[in-house]
Design brief:
With 317 residues, this protein is an alpha/beta fold. 31% of the residues lie in helices and 22% in strands. The structure holds iron/sulfur cluster (SF4).
Length: 317
């Protein structure tokens, strides 16, 4: 199966206001996504996952590394070419209100990508708008309303319709359900699953919530302070989590079935400040199994079996 997205040694530094040293937001990211699959990216706030999402579309410029979209080196593209390519890559944001123009009707919002790319004629655009509104659960009679007249869940449905109406090759969803109530989250996840199947979409799905990732993703990259610390297929990651950080995240997921409950691993402290990262393994101040060497030596991502990589020097098998 061919790859829709490949990231090689991607790094992003920001200038620090308080130090001569740059702030490294993401470092040495090597990930890829096959067409039609979902790559989940999980981590706490401050792990660099949202910066990574923006790097994938070149909405922020990488400091170094390579981004290949459907075989095309994105960093070599001129602004015009990049704009054209971006119509094949769409983003769904956490807060739909900030991504929907409050002065536009829902009809105009959903239709806008078709207008920008001059899709066929006006009649065909209108038909598509109505069909995609129906697909996402927005009534035809509501299309001439404005975003503020809808609930948060409905607004996310509108932003999803807008993102997929051009049948993009890649959708990057950055925390698309985390601002919604639990019952609405399930509806939106089911909607995304149906659209993925019906339109054969490839997804990068970003969330701080591993249970959401478990429901939606085929493969998972766990991020901590700008680095991928574990990567595996979703069933493999949940069956055999190897990194202590992943183990702690999984142990924090509530289990309904009593005999599936495991002892919760509570991490001490918060995510460190990326402007002042801990030496050695960035996770060592919070790691329940850290040894002296962990504060000196930086672990590398190593392979364990097929398609499972872990960055922890204490993992042996
Ligand atoms: Fe914990 Fe050390 Fe492994 Fe880092 S390298 S995850 S601090 S045991």
């Amino acid at each position: 199966m061919s790859k829709i997205l490949e990231l090689e040694n991607l790094r992003k530094e920001f200038v620090s206001k308080s130090s001569d040293q740059p702030i490294v937001a993401v470092d040495n990211i090597c990930l890829s996504l096959e067409k039609g699959k979902v790559l989940g990216i999980v981590g706490e706030s401050g792990s660099g996952k949202s910066t990574l999402a923006r790097l994938m579309l070149r909405l922020v410029e990488p400091t170094s590394g390579k981004i290949t979209f459907d075989g095309i080196d994105l960093r070599n593209q001129k602004p015009d070419e990049l704009r054209r390519l971006r119509s094949r890559m769409q983003m769904i944001f956490q807060d739909p209100m900030s991504s929907l123009d409050p002065r536009m009707t829902v009809r105009a919002i959903i239709r806008e990508p078709l207008d920008i790319h001059n899709h066929e004629n006006s009649q065909s655009r209108e038909k598509l708008v109505e069909s995609f509104a129906e697909k996402v659960g927005i009534a035809k009679s509501a299309l001439d309303k404005y975003p503020h007249e809808f609930s948060g869940g409905q607004r996310q449905r509108i932003s999803i319709a807008r993102a997929v109406i051009n049948k993009p090759d890649l959708v990057i969803a950055d925390e698309p359900v985390s601002a919604l109530d639990l019952s609405i989250q399930a509806q939106i996840l089911n909607l995304l699953k149906d659209l993925r199947r019906d339109l054969n979409l490839s997804f990068v799905f970003i969330s701080h919530d591993l249970s959401v990732i478990n429901y939606f993703a085929d493969e998972v990259a766990v991020m901590y302070l700008g680095n991928v610390v574990e990567y595996a297929s979703t069933p493999e990651l949940f069956a055999r989590p190897k990194h202590p950080y992943t183990q702690a995240l999984i142990s924090a997921i509530p289990q309904i079935v009593a005999d599936q409950r495991t002892d919760r691993l509570i991490l001490s402290g918060d995510m460190p400040n990326p402007a002042n990262p801990p030496t050695g393994c960035h996770f060592h101040p919070r790691c329940p199994i850290a040894v002296d060497n962990c504060s000196i030596q930086t672990p590398k991502l190593r392979s364990f079996g097929q398609n499972h990589q872990v960055s922890c020097d204490l993992v042996t098998a």
